[in-house]
Amino acid sequence: MAQDEDERYWGRPAVLERGGSQIHYWVVGPEDGPLVVCTHGATMDHRLFDPQLEPLVDAGYRVLAWDIRGHGISKPIGTEFTVPLVVDDLMAIIDRLGAEEVVLVGQSFGGYVSQELLFRYPERVTALGIIGSTDLLTVPPRLEYLALRLTPYLFRLWPAGHLRKVIAENTAETPAAKRYAYNATCQLSKREFLTVWKAVAVCHHAEPGYRIRKPFLLTHGEHDGTGTIARDAPAWAEREPDCRYEVIPDAGHNANQDNPDTFNEILLEFLEDVLETG
Q1: Closest CA to 21 of 67, 53, 65, 56
Q2: What are the CA-CA distances from residue 226 to residues 75, 80, 170, 253, 264 (Å)?
């Protein structure tokens, strides 16, 4: 989608300057509607949630989507890049909008950001939705964690052009979603990509006994082969006290793009139930 087409769809972005980055965000929908905050995955951008915008707005929700620093048009990446810093960026946007409570929807790395925000500011979160992410607050087994910590060094040696093609191919199932993923990934330089991935590799922290004490929607694509997401999701769902777990059929890592009809139906049902009982 060209930038002028994007503006016709999402409107003109607002800009927040923080930590050396011009962070762009979009807010669409009724001002008095519950705020649904959509955070994309690593190397993606706000357009990941194009298929969710119209259904959410039509249902009466206000939608916030943004380009995380270093992604999309939020340039430059700034002085540093960590999950806590990205959470601070997002909280600054939420505070600017005057929202007391929000629903968080995060995909992949955006799921880590959403989990960290909930962990730090539980009083500001009504509910949590996750697409294709693992439990941030449980450190992976030792060998898997070591492999994760080593991935930035592997990616450093990987030719950038081929790496982007591999990411796009393995991120989505549908041709349109693959094209989007490749386009989005090309917006990051190799240096920016490595900076982001270093943050991914070290963001887990163990919080024994922690549970998500909010309504929690956990989803991933039927064909999501990224990391251990599909393997670990059932056990994660089982230990959370208020979790709805759904596998999105005919979908990969970007499940909300690959099969938006099914995902949107599940998300809207979840939100309706949360707001009725909240």
Answers
A1: 67
A2: 27, 26, 8, 7, 22
Kindly state the average pLDDT of the residues 250-273: 98
**Cα Rg for the chain, rounded, in angstroms?**
17
Contacts of 191 (CB under 8 A, 6+ apart): none
Residue 180, Cα to own-chain centre: how many angstroms?
A: 15
DSSP 41: P
Distance from the Cα of residue 159 to its chain's centroid = 26
CB 67 within 8 A of CB 1: no
Please tell me whether the peptide bond between 76 and the residue prior to it is cis, using omega within 30 degrees of 0: yes
Give me the chain's average pLDDT, please.
Answer: 93
Strand ranges for 32-111 from DSSP E: 35-39, 62-66, 102-107
Task: State how far the Cα of 38 lies from the Cα of 138, in Å rounded to an integer.
Answer: 23
- Beta strands of the chain (E only): which ranges? 14-18, 21-28, 35-39, 62-66, 102-107, 125-131, 216-221, 243-248
Question: What pLDDT, in 10s, does the model give residues 121-157?
Answer: 999 999 999 999 999 999 877 777 777 666 766 776 6
Cα–Cα distance list, 250 to 89, 172, 221, 232, 263 (Å): 34, 10, 7, 19, 11
- Give 167 or 19, the one with higher predicted confidence: 19
Interacting residues of 180 by C-beta distance below 8 A, sequence separation 6+: 47, 48, 172, 254, 257
Instruction: Centre a 10 Å sphere on the Cβ of residue 54 and count the other Cβ atoms it contains.
Output: 14
What's the pLDDT at 107?
98
Provide the pLDDT for residue 8. 76
